[in-house]
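Need residues for this backbone.
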């Protein structure tokens, strides 16, 4: 049986039945590797797919597969690496709950959920740096309260945390009748202050009731920028109770922060512990390609009025950052500048003029993962795409490992960040490559010389 054909038939059917968002998130980059002994082995791109496909699409896949092949198979999901490492394949426990789907009638209650409608999954552009976060976010949105609770998103400012939170909220509101509330931790603090401010009779029953209604009669709480809750101990206390109340009733809690739960210095340990009980995901700064894609998508969507040529987009993506908010700021500034000068069209010269104050001075040099990739690729006469690819033949994978080693030793970039710039590899792959090259240099004179030469090329501008 040709597994590729079987799988592509199955995918074609799924494509018709699922929303394009669900289809691309869960079925892009999947493959039926083999069918063996009554078991269908399906390769998936990320660990999160294993559980999600098993729990929520398992029956659908099984029934289609059985129809196409006329026999019954058990499904096993695993990652490509698990196969390549020859390690034991980590399979899913069998204790998963049923595939029950909420069939709520959509009814419109007029609760103010504070959601910003324009932030959706559809206009959140996915790249290597945010793929895990956005996939997990969709998974939560599809199954609130069921899989990852609490769901904790963290990362530096301007990388899309708030956008993703609203996307989750909007998705849930659209697909169920669950009551959603989005607030910032500062709004929460304000509410707490009102609760504790006693009126003339020394009581504040009205506000206590209001507070309870607001925070306990909901199904999904999104709380943004939790780092600002820090320090205010009454707020933490109340948040702890609110959290427990919701959590114990299987209500979904979604939290964002500029740092990981463990790095939230002013937060009480018991809150940190609760935060780490679910799933925490990190959003990293976008790479060049993602920056450009985001800009193109925003221009297409009409977020910016004006025609921006490709070389100008390249210039912006190369020189502005590292976050998305400053990219948007740069484009706004460029358009204002061009209008101010009555420019007929936007050119690279105009952009350079307009953005002098915006350009992150160090960035050209600092962002030298790309530079190292280019120099190493030239040296070995392969392409930068090859270096960033998943190809495993040694004339490509050796230079790739050398490039990773050089990135790690010649820049301040972290393992995860390097992984992202190498086509979205896991940080453990980068670590492994760096260690391997370190070891080999000691034993292999030729390699040591090559690396010396490359280091020289990289340090000379
Ligand atoms: P954060 O909350 O992490 O500080 P925001 O969610 O406010 O960042 O994002 C800042 C801006 O960047 C918003 O306009 C948001 O729409 C945009 N943005 C960030 N990441 C993306 C993305 N992947 N696709 C589209 N827009 C994005
Ligand atoms: Mg934010």
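Answer:
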């Amino acid at each position: 049986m040709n597994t590729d054909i079987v799988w592509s038939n199955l995918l074609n059917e799924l494509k018709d039945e699922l929303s394009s968002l669900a289809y691309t998130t869960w079925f892009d980059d999947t493959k039926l590797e083999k069918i063996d002994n009554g078991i269908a082995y399906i390769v998936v791109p990320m660990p999160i797919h294993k559980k999600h496909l098993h729990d929520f699409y398992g029956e659908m896949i099984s029934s289609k597969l059985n129809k196409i092949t006329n026999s019954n198979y058990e499904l096993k999901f695993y990652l490509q690496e698990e196969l390549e490492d020859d390690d034991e394949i980590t399979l899913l426990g069998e204790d998963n709950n049923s595939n029950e789907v909420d069939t709520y009638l959509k009814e419109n209650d007029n609760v103010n959920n504070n959601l910003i409608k324009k932030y959706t999954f559809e206009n959140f552009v996915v790249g290597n740096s945010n793929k895990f976060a956005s996939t997990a976010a969709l998974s939560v949105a599809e199954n609130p309260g069921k899989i990852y609770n609490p769901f904790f998103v963290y990362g530096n400012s301007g990388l899309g945390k708030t956008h993703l939170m609203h996307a989750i909220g909007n998705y849930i509101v659209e697909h169920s009748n669950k009551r959603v509330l989005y607030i910032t931790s500062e709004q929460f603090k304000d509410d707490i202050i009102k609760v504790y401010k006693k009126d003339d009779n020394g009581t504040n029953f009205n506000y206590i009731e209001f507070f309870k209604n607001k925070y306990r009669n909901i199904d999904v709480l999104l709380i943004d920028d939790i780092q600002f809750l820090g320090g205010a101990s009454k707020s933490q206390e109340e948040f702890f109770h609110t959290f427990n109340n919701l959590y114990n009733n299987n209500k979904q809690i979604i939290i964002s922060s500029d740092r990981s739960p463990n790095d939230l210095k002013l937060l009480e340990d018991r809150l940190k512990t609760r935060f780490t009980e679910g799933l925490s995901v990190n959003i990293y700064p976008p790479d060049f390609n993602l920056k450009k894609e985001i800009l193109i998508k925003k221009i297409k969507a009409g977020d910016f009025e004006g025609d921006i040529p490709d070389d100008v987009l390249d210039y912006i993506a190369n020189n502005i950052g590292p976050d998305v908010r400053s990219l948007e700021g740069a484009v706004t500034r460029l358009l204002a500048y061009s209008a101010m000068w009555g420019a007929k069209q936007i050119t690279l010269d105009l952009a350079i003029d307009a953005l002098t104050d915006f350009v992150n001075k160090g960035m050209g040099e600092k962002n030298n993962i790309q530079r190292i990739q280019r120099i190493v690729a030239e040296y070995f006469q392969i392409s930068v795409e090859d270096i960033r690819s998943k190809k495993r033949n040694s004339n490509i994978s050796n230079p790739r490992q050398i490039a990773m080693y050089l990135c790690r030793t010649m820049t301040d970039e972290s393992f995860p960040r390097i992984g992202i710039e190498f086509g979205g590899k896991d940080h453990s792959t980068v670590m492994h490559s760096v260690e391997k090259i370190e070891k080999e240099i000691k034993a292999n004179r030729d390699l040591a010389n090559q690396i010396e030469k490359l280091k020289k090329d990289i340090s000379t501008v």
